[in-house]
Design a protein that fits this description.
The complex is a heterodimer of chains A (about 240) and B (about 240).
Chain A lengths: L1 H15 L1 H19 L4 H4 L12 H13 L1 H9 L1 H7 L4 H21 L2 H10 L4 H28 L3 H17 L3 H10 L2 H10 L2 H8 L5 H26 L1
Helix pairs in contact in A: 1-7, 2-4, 2-7, 4-9, 4-10, 5-9, 7-9, 7-14, 9-10, 9-13, 9-14, 13-14
Chain B lengths: L1 E10 L2 E11 L4 E5 L6 H8 L7 E6 L2 E2 L4 H5 L2 E4 L11 H11 L4 H14 L15 H13 L5 E5 L7 H14 L4 E6 L2 H7 L2 E6 L2 E6 L1 H7 L5 H8 L7
Parallel strand pairs in B: 3-8, 3-9, 6-7, 7-8
Antiparallel strand pairs in B: 1-2, 1-4, 4-5, 9-10
The chains are: A mainly alpha (about 240), B alpha/beta (about 240).
Chain lengths: ~240, ~240
Amino acid sequence: MSSITIFKRELKSYFAQPTAYAIIVIFLILSLGLTFTFGNFMRVGDASLQYSFFFWHPWLYMLIAPAIGMKLWADEQRNGTIELLGTFPVSTWSVILGKFLAAAAVTLVALLLTFPIVITVNYLGSPDNGAIVSGYIGSFLVSCTFIAITMLVSACTRDQVVCLIVSVAICTLMVLCGYDDFTRELAKATSPAAVEAVIAFGVWDHFSSLNRGLFRLQDFIWFSTFIGLCLLGTSTILSAKRA
Amino acid sequence: MIEVSNLTKRFGSKLAVDNLSFSVEKGEVLGFLGPNGAGKSTTMRMVTGFLPPTSGEAHICGISITEEPARAKTKIGYLPESAPLYNDMTVIGFLKFCAEIRGLVGIEKNEAVERSIETCFLTSVAHQSIDTLSKGYRHRTCLAQALLHDPEVLILDEPTDGLDPNQKYEVRQLIKRLGETKAILFSTHILEEVEASCSRAVIVDQGKIVVDGTPAELIAQAPNGSLTELFRKLTTTDTAA
């Protein structure tokens, strides 16, 4: 119940300020722009969104998710409103959950507004719409993962800029780990076991299987574990800060 | 209503609150005096359940704040020191949010918000965005938030800080009026406030209570009948410490 109250407040706050609009517009311009330029959507002539459209999402999220999530706790700590939250009869968990869902909702709105590309590809050919849905799910899960990371970083600092830089760095690392060019270079330098470990840490492997239309239980477990751990870490940091 | 026993808070090697014990009954207004850094805010943060104490215990209406924080917190209204608010909300939006999070819904919520707005004289700014408010209004908005659920215990950290003389007078009158039916703990370093609105006062220095009594008793102890002299005699200045 209190999670819903927090969720509504956070979401209103995103849309009361230019933050959400700026982020959504930039995401739409970049994701659709990249699809038609570097993504070669028209030239390839393949009725699929896998490489032309979804491929860019992790790269965009690694910048956009930290921008959405950086204020979540940093702002509360700077303004002192964390003291209000801490003395309301609600658990830290419900606040964390409410905030996380609000940030995730902003990316969900951005993602859903890319629907014209789905209409376009259906108009031009006959794509596998199941794979498109699963691509969207994968994309959303990646954004949630990055928001969870940002939230964890946000709990550590009261400075939004520090939070932005640190979270972008971590998210970038997670995109690069498991990205083909990067792992190929890594394989030359280290052992296969190390490469496996690095790939497992990155989002790419889990995202691309969903992007291909493959529902693997292990990917869902990976995403939910990673998000769960980040939120748990947030709660631990927040209570450690008060002790 | 408020029972504090042997409350201690240590930040690293610094002892902020040292084995503090006191109690506030219903109908009593306890003034919490002391120089800056004496541990007043830390004590209040522990009593409200924001900070966990290193040792010791606080009970609100008989409920332990460390063992049953959620239930104890429903009994408390708290005004933090700097009157923190969400700047992106309107006054009424903020109060509705606070009422909702305290479990008030529907008519009950709207009535609580309206009552608080009236009590704290916020009618003229109710629909204004919080970041455009003057300091006095910000303070009163935060105070309104503390009164929403008609709590049995009020904890106010420097409620008159930064207000002009008229506003100070209003807030003191309000505290006095509310104190008839509630237990109030409020901190200040304005000594005249003690005489104006407290039924009892304690002076805290370096985390310890150095004197406890009614304003009249305190004045009787003072070297030349002035609270300021007593305060200066009993507390350490930060240049000396």
